[in-house]
Amino acid sequence: MEPHTESPVQFRKLIYEHYRLHGRALPWRLTWDPYCVFVSEIMLQQTQVRRVLEKYGEFIGAFPDFPALAGAPLARVLSLWQGMGYNRRALWLKEGAIAVMERFSGSLPQSPGVLATLPGIGSATAASIAAFAFNEPTVFIETNIRTVFIHFFFHNADEVRDSQILPLVARTLDRRDPRTWYYALMDYGTMLKKEGEKGHRRSAGYRTQSRFHGSDRQVRGAILKLLVEKKALPEAALIDLVRSPEEKVRKNLGDLQREGFVRESEEGYTIV
Fold first, then answer.
1. Is 179 found in the same domain as 63?
2. Greatest CA separation found in the chain?
3. Which is nearest to 152 in space by CA: 1, 2, 5, 23?
4. Weakly modelled stretches of the chain, pLDDT under 50
5. Domain finish residue from 156, 188, 208
6. How far is Cα 111 from Cα 4, in angstroms, rounded to an integer?
7. Do 94 and 162 belong to one domain?
8. Any idea of the CA torsion for 113, 116, 117, 119, to the nearest 10 degrees?
9. What's the confidence (pLDDT) of residue 249?
10. How far apart are CA 168 and CA 226, in angstroms?
11. pTM of the entire structure?
12. Are residues 165 and 220 in the same domain?
């Protein structure tokens, strides 16, 4: 199905009007510090804004810049990350900070192509960091932006592909102020969802989240939480405390070792 034709000027006017009246003053929007943008964009991957708000200030307070995060013990980073889920992102943040210090003399690169070479940063996140940290007129999609464009341009269409949406994002982009424009789009998408709009479910890429209880993600999180609290535990103690099948705990311990989270020593397993 072809998208409905909307005037870019009228579309932007409507989105900006809503933002003027209802825009959210989120803490990472109130700074141009590339480091703060970098942290917030990784935090916001797969996590609701309200949960990020609970952690962001404490995290920035503990690790205020790239040198502080790069030099921090991983156990300390993970301890402040507890409750956010997807602990891999905490490792990516630390590894990304190390890469910025070693490869770019402590300054976050502005190019989306270069940003995408940092750990855990795909093309969309690289583009969003460039837009929000440097006001670069990049083109990207995230869930709220996707909701807005499906709502306005794909009435009653199903299986809408991002490849259909991206040209519309480019055509309607406010290239003079992409940072504010994307904030406005995201807030409009948030409003639509609160009002019951389910446009994002008509995306070809929409998937329901897999069950957490009993998943590898739950086991990994439990292992890391225990090691953050206890400092070191032998395998037998972890198997007992995690309360999951022995083979599942062993499998996830092996995965965490390979990924650089934990190591085995004489005292047992510890955070790297």
1. yes
2. 67
3. 5
4. 1-3
5. 208
6. 33
7. yes
8. 170
9. 95
10. 47
11. 0.88
12. no
CA distance 249 to 54: 29
* Domain CATH number, residue 267: 1.10.10.10
- In DSSP terms, 270 is beta-bridged to 232, 263
Helix locations, the chain, DSSP H: 8-22, 34-43, 49-62, 66-71, 74-81, 88-104, 112-115, 123-134, 143-153, 162-172, 178-194, 216-230, 235-242, 246-258
Is 173 found in the same domain as 39?
yes
What is the rounded CA–CA span in Å between residue 89 and residue 8?
A: 36
Cβ(154)–Cβ(3) below 8 Å:
yes
Share of the chain above pLDDT 90, in %: 84
Q: Which residues of 72-105 are buried (b: 16+ CB within 10 A; e: fewer)?
A: bebbebbbbbeebebbbbbbbbbbbbbbbbeeee
Give the pLDDT confidence of 47-105 residue by residue, as tens digits: 999 999 999 999 999 999 999 999 999 999 999 999 898 999 999 999 999 999 999 99
Domain boundary (155, 186, 208) is at: 208
Check whether residue 110 and residue 200 sit in a common domain. yes
The count of other CB atoms within 10 Å of the CB of residue 227 is 21
How many structural domains does the chain have?
A: 2
Statement to judge: residues 8 and 104 lie in one domain: yes
> Does residue 189 share a domain with residue 57?
yes
User: Amino acid letter at 54?
Assistant: E
Question: Which positions are annotated as active-site residues?
Answer: 41
Q: What is the domain extent for residue 4? A: 1-208
Task: Tell me the backbone φ, ψ of residue 212, rounded to 5 degrees.
Answer: -85, -45
Nearest to 166 by CA among 117, 124, 227, 106: 124
Q: In what order do the strands lie in the sheet with 268-271?
A: 232-233, 268-271, 262-265
CA 245 to chain centre: 30
